[in-house]
Amino acid sequence: MSSSDSKNSRKDFVWKYVIEVSREQYIRCKFCNQRCTGGVNRLKHHLVGTHHGMKPCSKVSEDARLECKEALANFKDKKTKRNELLQEIGMGPTSMHESALSKTIGTLGSGSGSRSVSGSGEPIPRGPMDKFTTSQPRQSTLNSKWKQEERKEVCRKIGRFMYSKGLPFNTVNDPYWFPMIDVVANFEPGFKPPSMHELRAWILKEEVNDLSIIMEDHKKAWKQYGCSIMSDGWTDGKSRCLINFLVNSPTGTWFMKSIDASDTIKNGELMFKYLDEVVEEIGEENVVQVITDNASNYVNAGMRLMEKRSRLWWTPCAAHCIDLMLEDIGKLNVHATTLSQARQVVKFIYGHTWVLSLMRTFTKNLELIRPAITRFATAFLTLQSIYKQKQALIAMFSSEKWCSSTWAKKVEGVKTRSTVLFDPNFWPHVAFCIKTTVPLVSVLREVDSEERPAMGYIYELMDSAKEKIAFNCGGMERKYGPIWRKIDARWTPQLHRPLHAAGYYLNPQLRYGDKFSNVDEVRKGLFECMDRMLDYQERLKADIQLDSYDQAMGEFGSRIAIDSRTLRSPTSWWMRFGGSTPELQKFVIRVLSLTCSASGCERNWSTFESVILLFL
């Protein structure tokens, strides 16, 4: 973006949604910190979500999105009218360059009989009939074909580089890919790429400085909204035991550090020390909760942390707890037997190339295996996929092609065919397993998603999942009872936390709904959170203000507040209508902005940012 372009476009309204990065030729989105190397028009496409070379903004406000959408529509309309006018006066898009060139070279004659000189030296006639005809100069067609061939050559060079380094194809989906290609394409011919020394010297230093600026924005969000510390252990390709520490807030997830714990014992004492250091680094006043998985060493560390730090909460990862629920359900007799049979079917089909090819001809290239967030979710979703292909599998094992193959006479093939065609319990049990687990898998997807903070929804999601399971079982307690008991065995002691109850109570989408469960355990959880997170004076004022929220009085009872309960996110609703209750508003926003899951910490942050921050 040139300096002149920048000065001219400062009048554009979209600059109020921009974070400028000094000394660099790019800007950043105010909502999601996305880097934009194009002009303000590209940023508008980013905010509206029409791609245009940039990943759509997931955090843009509705007002900003509509404002940019209207501006883009007006711009497109003006551009269309301008092109129509140019066509009418005999200056289409292709002839504009010719006109500019003719001014440079000069014109021959004047009036209606004048002739402009083209770049090829041939005169171009201009007359009154030109506006009723269209012309495609042969030179333009040749140029277009030459450009296509040139692009193919450039694409092959890029592909060759990626193949030689074994880069995955989804590299081109990285948000930094298109900005890189754009600046290289806009640079004058003869661009000299950076050397290895430049990449590890001044370029790295500049990126570290930029990320330090972005980190300051995250720190501001931690103070305003509070934050969650997420910790998760994993093993890398070199069998090193690594522990990641990340900080989550409405601004996004920020990688803090990664510790190599290979040479130490991951006991409660060690984990407490690590977590306490991270809390101290971020500031205890900014931390609302610490999320870990449910292993005994993390539980021990979490309890000790809550004893030392009187205002924060330790909560187990919701995704990990739900995965354990699925594991427990998978151990019930019907589920265990069915999963074992399904695994044998899948293992046989995918373990032999000819059988797999035959299966794909009957399923129209649809797969049986469905990878999911966790191992046990994958098992039950694969079960669902098998059931969807029931008729295709039956047709396959009944076909003449199968019966005439050598696999039909082998022990594995005979056993698999017998399961699919002749076992009277297999398909009914597959259907039963799906009905009793898929609602729980849906909750897992919800809490592990970064689309919205899940704290205000997890309580209702679990209740709704249990109701769906009971409904799927025809309301027969002997069928859904064992499933409920497995869920409650994990939910009550592990996942049913005061923060979850408070989030449920303070979510206006649920609090004012017909199905809201105003039971003692919900209010008790809310009051426990208020007692722990607020000092006495704040607690007293917030408790008085809570009555206005309960009874929908004042701003909470205005028509626009009532109509927007389901249209706005819970957090934005409180920011809009809770301004007259500052003590309660601050507490509520901190609760509703929280995430529920720390699973997959190694995939929730940008590889680029993590590599850069290791140099800080």
From TrEMBL:
Localization annotation: Nucleus
Q: Where is there biased composition of kind Polar residues? A: 132-145
**Where this protein primarily resides, as one coarse class?**
nucleus
Protein name as catalogued = BED-type domain-containing protein
The record's keywords, sorted A to Z, are: DNA-binding, Metal-binding, Nucleus, Zinc, Zinc-finger
Q: What residue spans carry the region label Disordered?
A: 91-147
User: What Pfam families does its record include?
Assistant: Dimer_Tnp_hAT, DUF659, zf-BED
Q: Note the PANTHER family from the entry.
A: OS05G0256350 PROTEIN, OSJNBA0013A04.12 PROTEIN
Kindly give the SUPFAM superfamilies that the UniProt entry links to this protein: Ribonuclease H-like
The species this protein was found in: Vitis vinifera (Grape)
Q: Where is the BED-type domain?
A: 9-64
InterPro entries in the record = DUF659 (IPR007021), HATC_C_dom (IPR008906), RNaseH-like_sf (IPR012337), Znf_BED (IPR003656), Znf_C2H2_type (IPR013087)
